[in-house]
Amino acid sequence: MTKHILQNSSQQSNLVLQYGKDALLVIVGVLSASFGLKGFLLPNDFLDGGVTGISLLINILTDINLPVLIIIVNLPFIWLAYTQVSKVFAIKTLIAIGLLALSLTFISFPIVTTDKLLIAVFGGFFLGAGIGLSIRGGCVLDGTEVLALFISRKTVLSVGDVIIVINVIIFSAAAILINIETAMYAMLTYLGASKTIDFLIHGLEEFTGVTIITEHSEAVRKVIIEKLGRGVTIFNGKRGFGKRGQLNEDLEIIYTVVTRLEIQKLTDEIENIDKSAFIIQQSINDVKGGMIKKLPLH
Q1: What does the alpha-carbon distance between residue 47 and residue 209 come to, in Å, rounded to a whole number?
Q2: Which residues of 186-223 are buried (b: 16+ CB within 10 A; e: fewer)?
C-alpha cells in the first residue's frame, strides 16, 4: 500500500513538473512572438506566412485589430486540432493564442529598427522562436501545421508540401493586394521563422522515428495505437551489458514513426508508464507505405 501511494505521488509530481515546464516554454514563446511582431513586423507593415501572415495581411488591408484577428483566424484550426490531434493539445493551443492576443494588446515593445532586411531576418527569428518554443510546450501559435497535418492524412501531399502551397497563396495575395516588394520581404521573414522553428524542435523533417526500450512494452504499445493512432513494429531483442552486469534477458523493442506535433505527447505518455524507459529519436528524410500516405509534391 505504501509503495503504491509513493508511486502515485511520484507520478503526480512528475506531471506537475511537466506541466510547469510546458507552461514556461509557452509563456516565453508568446513573449518572443509578441516581440517579433510589435518590435519588427507590425510597425513596418511586414508579413509572415501561415495563419499569422493571413492575420497580418487582413490587418494591413482593413485596420482590424490584430489580436482579434489572430484569435478569429485561428479558431477553425483550433477546432481541427481538437478533432484531429487531441483535446489537451487544442485547449493548450487556445490558451497560448489567447495569451498572444493579450500580450499584443497590453505589453509595449520598442521598435528596434526600420531597416527592411533586419526586420525580415530578426522579425522572422523572434516569431519563429515563439512558435518553436510553443511547439516544445505541446501546442502551436499558428494553426497552419494543424491544417497541413489534417490535409496530409486525407491526400497524397506531405505536411511540408501543404505548408508550401498555403504560403505561396498568401504571398501571391500580398503581391496582388499590396505590392511585390512586400511579398518578397514576407518570404524572407517566413524563411527566417521556419528555420528557427526547425532548429528549436530539433529536426528539419516532418516525421521522426522513435525506438522505445521498456519493461512495460505492452502498455506503451497500446498507448501508441489507441491514443496516438499510430502503428508500431515490435522487435524481439536481448538485454546486453548494463548497470546490473551481464544480462541475457529477452525483451520487446518498440519502433514507431510520429509527426513532430506528436512527439511531446508520445514522450509524456511513455514517462507516465515508465519514467526510466530508454527512448531514441531519429530524424527521417522521407517515409512511405504502412499507415503513412505520402507522395512528395516535388
Answers
A1: 34
A2: bbbbbbbbbebbeebbebebbbbebebbbeebeebbeb
Choose among 206, 166, 204, 199: nearest CA to 48. 166
Residue with grid cell 516554454, as numbered in its chain: 25
Between 160 and 136, residue with greater pLDDT? 136
| Residue that the C-alpha cell 501545421 belongs to | 145
159 vs 152 pLDDT, higher one: 152
Q: In whole angstroms, how far apart are CA 245 and each of 55, 242, 248, 251?
A: 59, 5, 10, 16
Residue partners of 80: CB distance under 8 A and separation at least 6: 143, 146, 147, 150
> 236 forms bridges with which residues in the sheet?
252
| Beta bridge mates, 289 | 292
> What average pLDDT does range 197-217 have in this prediction?
75
Give the contacts of 28 (CB within 8 A, at least 6 positions apart): 133
Comparing 221 with 242, the larger pLDDT belongs to: 221
Q: How far apart are CA 29 and CA 100, in angstroms?
A: 9
Judge contact between 260 and 203, C-beta under 8 A: yes
